[in-house]
Design a protein that fits this description.
Elements lengths: L2 E5 L4 H12 L3 E6 L8 H9 L4 E4 L5 H10 L3 E6 L6 H6 L1 H21 L4 E7 L23 H18 L5 E7 L1 E3 L18 H9 L6 E4 L11 E2 L1 E3 H16 L7 E6 L5 E2 H12 L5 E4 L14 H7 L7 H15 L1
Parallel strand pairs: 1-2, 1-4, 2-3, 4-5, 5-6, 6-11, 7-10, 8-13
Antiparallel strand pairs: 9-12
Helix pairs in contact: 1-2, 1-8, 3-5, 5-6, 7-11, 9-11
The structure holds uridine-diphosphate-N-acetylglucosamine.
Uridine-diphosphate-N-acetylglucosamine (UD1) binds next to helix 7 and strand 8.
Length: 338
């Protein structure tokens, strides 16, 4: 059985990916420093798949710890690197935390992989690298815009680090996956998004408001140049997203990649406004949301959605879940945890 190292594997996207990897017959080793997740996530994964992934509490910034990990688990076929700090607002307050966590962890992995004969690398990137694109839907060829936040900057720099490392002749092949807005939860409600404290992202705030944990949702911005004045995003089901990682890993392991570093947009190709999300959530769940349209949030992009054609064609992957089922899964998960 091929072994896959998943950093950040108890996190939101990581845990859903571990499920899909195990379902596809891979053996998974999770490392996570548990800064934004809990070891109990492995229980949920085990309940879904009937198999418990190996879990080691480890920070990817710990070079010696990581080296020991690679030595202990010889024969890793690929690394999927999710572990990173990801809150845009916090990154403005604590830029050095973001630069240290996100850059040092990547450098450590890329230094150690060749030493242990590990060639295949899948990296969690983000549509944030496009900033506000000039043309929509955005393709992988669109120029990257100067980052709006230290978080966004780390994603750009990390992409550059992977590219430069591969160009330098390192024995590494990479796939950079640019996620749009991942939402929803596993349909079993055994795993999902677990924000610590007040959620910054839209869907956890919506579900917590519906559950009565938050009194009111603020819809940020009313006069954007969009059909209803609120921001537009490409919301992608987290299980669909997780499945793309399995395909990316297989592509690398089976040497089917066409370039040493490939870049794919992972989105649905459909843009939805914040108000459309609110309305659809109300329709699907029957719960009325208390919300108020307020001023815009600093640093927000007006509208962005993916052209996913390249991923559809090259990976044979397509976002399949409807927004209705996806929002229903987020609500089912919220009801389970609240
Ligand atoms: C941003 C990044 C994304 C990154 C993510 C990490 C862009 C385009 N996207 O997502 O790449 O991975 O941060 O956190 O840079 N909203 C409300 N009320 C709320 C919360 C959000 O109206 O309480 C609105 C926002 O203004 C936005 C939409 O909902 O229009 C989605 O927001 P959010 O879930 O925070 O994700 P992004 O900011 O799009």
């Amino acid at each position: 059985m091929q072994k896959i190292l998943v950093t950040g594997g108890t996190g939101y996207i990581g845990s859903h990916t571990v499920v899909e990897l195990q379902n596809a017959g891979f053996e998974v080793i999770i490392i996570d420093n548990l800064s934004n997740s809990s070891a109990e996530v492995a229980d949920g994964i085990a309940r879904i798949t009937g198999k418990r992934p190996i879990f080691e509490k480890l920070d990817c910034c710990d070079y010696e710890g990581l080296k020991n990990l690679f030595a202990k688990h010889a024969g890793i076929s690929a690394v999927i690197h999710f572990a990173a700090s990801k809150a845009v607002g916090e990154s403005v307050q604590k830029p050095l935390l973001y630069y240290r966590n996100n850059l040092v962890s990547l450098v450590n992995l890329l230094e150690l992989m060749p030493k242990f004969g590990v060639e295949n690398f899948v990296f969690s990137s983000s549509c944030t690298v496009y900033g506000q694109p000039d043309e929509l839907p955005v393709t992988e060829q669109a120029p990257r815009k100067p980052a709006e936040s230290p978080y966004g900057n780390t994603k750009q720099i990390c992409e550059d680090i992977v590219n430069d490392t591969v160009k330098s002749g390192s024995n590494i092949k990479g796939i950079l996956l640019r996620y749009f807005n991942p939402i929803g939860a596993h349909p079993s409600a055994e795993i999902g998004e677990l924000p610590l404290g007040v959620p910054q992202n839209l869907i956890p705030f919506v579900t917590q408001t519906a559950a009565g944990i938050r009194p009111k949702l603020s819809v940020f911005g009313s006069d954007y140049n969009t059909p209803d004045g609120s921001c537009v995003r490409d919301y992608i089901n987290v299980v669909d997203l997780a499945k793309a990682h399995v395909i990316a890993v297989k592509r690398l392991v089976e040497n089917k990649n066409k370039k040493p570093v490939e870049v794919f947009n992972l989105g649905t190709g459909r843009g939805l406004s914040v108000l459309e999300i609110v309305k659809t959530f109300e329709k699907v769940t029957g719960v009325k949301l208390n919300y108020e349209v307020v001023g815009s949030r600093a640093g927000d992009i007006e509208k962005v959605w993916a052209n996913p054609d390249f991923a559809n064609k090259e990976l044979g992957w397509k976002a399949a879940e409807t927004i209705e089922d996806t929002l229903a899964s987020a609500w089912k998960w919220q009801q389970k945890i609240s």
